[in-house]
Amino acid sequence: MCNGLPDVDAPFYFTRKSLEMEAFDFRFDTDAPKVALPQGMMTPVNSINTLFHSPAFWGLALPVSVSPMASDIIRGYLAQRILWEIGGYLVVYPPTVHRVDNVHAHPFDDERDIHVNIGRLIKFLMEWRSSKRTLFERILDLSYAMTEEGLWGEKDLHFMAAWLQDLVAIGYRQPRLLSLDIDRPRATIGHGDKKEFVPKKLPAVHLGVEEIGEVSTEIDNLIKWRKHFGDIVLIVHCTEPVDRTALEWRLLYGRIFRAVVILSEQSNSDLAVELSNLAQAYKFLPKVFDRFAGAQGFLFLQDHVVLNYWNLLSADKAKLWITNQVKESWSDVPLQGNNIEWFVNQGDMVKKAVGNFPPYYQTNYRRSVGENKIIHCSSEIFYIPQQHIGDFSYLVKAIGSLDIHHTFAIPMVFLAMDSPSNFESKALSKLVYRADLPSNTTFASIYSAEAHAVYPLKVRNEMEFVKLIRVMASGDPFLMELV
Predict the structure, then answer these.
(1) Each residue's pLDDT expressed in tens, for the chain with a length of 483 residues
(2) What is the pTM of this model?
(3) CB neighbours of 441 closer than 8 A, spacing ≥ 6?
(4) Distance of CA 377 to the CA centre of its chain
(5) Spatial separation of the C-alpha atoms in residues 126 and 116, rounded to whole Å
(6) Three-class secondary structure of residue 34 per DSSP
(7) Residue 330 class from Cβ within 10 Å (0-12 exposed, 13-18 middle, 19+ buried)?
(8) Residues 337, 343, 349, CA angle at the centre, nearest 5°?
(9) Name one Pfam family in it (predicted).
(10) Which is it for strands 90-92 and 200-201: parallel, antiparallel or unpaired?
(11) Distance between CA atoms of 473 and 455, rounded to whole angstroms?
């Protein structure tokens, strides 16, 4: 609470005081007991003298699509409702600050979002339920529902997703979900049992931050990984439904990388998923490069490949990474006497594209490949450092309208940029790469925490994402905080 001038609304300010009257100077009982509101009861909460303890840091974000005067109040109601999901309380303390009444009240129109919509917002929050499995997923579920109800704008949905991703990226641990008290069966209250509610009293809470002398191994590793990959942009191309997987990939990899760009053959503006044809995904990459011009490098990943980032700390980020040492992924396709029309057509287009390259790139390519074959690479995963971004974009532009498939274009461009002997041998050489797996193959049977990456691991929904996280936790135990 706040002495002096609490955060009163415009109607109160203008109807209780004239310009000639002396300043407001409210005084509350500094010895009053602290009270915690139970689930099912809400109160307005503003930003004056309000403390968020670390398990509630997710509630710090202020809505941006409502009026500034209503933003903290709407945040307060939203935070109270989410607190119930983790067994938390809103606690009201006696005042510890004094605010001088030397400001003019804001016009009523600036507070319209409070007076017009708060009743509807509270009713909506009381009735809202979610079956999502993690706290952050429930927060996004609520954010989406509030957008649909018109309680705030679409900007806040995107803002909340970005805010949660930032929290995950710095190692914030999601509090675990608890069952709602208000949904538990209650005994029937007879006429003589009704009593006035007395809020629960809590002992004083230390408002400072207690420092500890040690950092856990899990957090230490996360800091190390983030420092190593924190200026690299990850590009994930999704073949599975993005409405069930896009957020999950951002939660998984957003903790480590500078940004996670999601591509798919079906765009989704609500989830910031961009349109890209997988067969020619390489042609979209220069647009991403331009957007993150200062990035140290770009790592491309198809969603059926799972990256064990903790095993790539020794890889040189100034070199090209590709799966040229994985025989199941990289192979020669002879052209002489080849009767497969698709290979022949791809070979003709590759030759035409290479012929359009400047002499330096032509020489690099032909020194590695020759004239009578082309290279096929599954190209599910590769890395391009900053020093080769200009080369890559230039060569993609030189390909022009040629319909070269992604699996031929990527090795062609890589071999034109540099010799395979200069590719980073410490990266992507230890892959679990399995093709033609039985349909009943489980994550646990194929996954290895010692590999650089694992293929294929298909994640098609939230349940499969949880299974993936549980097996990956053998390499990164901190991941269990996501489920």
Answers:
(1) 788 777 766 666 666 665 555 677 778 888 888 888 988 899 999 888 899 999 999 999 999 998 888 889 999 999 999 999 998 989 988 888 888 877 565 665 666 666 667 888 999 999 999 999 899 999 999 999 999 988 998 899 999 999 998 898 888 889 999 877 777 665 454 555 444 544 444 444 444 444 444 446 777 788 889 889 999 999 999 999 998 899 889 989 988 999 999 999 999 988 889 999 999 999 999 999 999 998 999 999 999 999 999 999 999 999 999 999 999 999 999 999 899 999 999 999 999 999 999 999 999 999 999 989 999 999 999 999 999 999 999 999 999 999 999 999 999 999 999 999 999 999 999 999 988 788 788 888 899 999 999 999 889 988 899 999 999 999 998 888 776
(2) 0.61
(3) none
(4) 29
(5) 18
(6) coil
(7) middle
(8) 110
(9) STELLO
(10) unpaired
(11) 17
Q: Pull the structure tokens for residue 269.
A: 């503006």
d(CA 71, CA 47): 9
3-state secondary structure (DSSP) of residue 384: strand
For residues 234, 269, 251, 220, the Cα torsion angle rounded to the nearest 10 degrees is 50
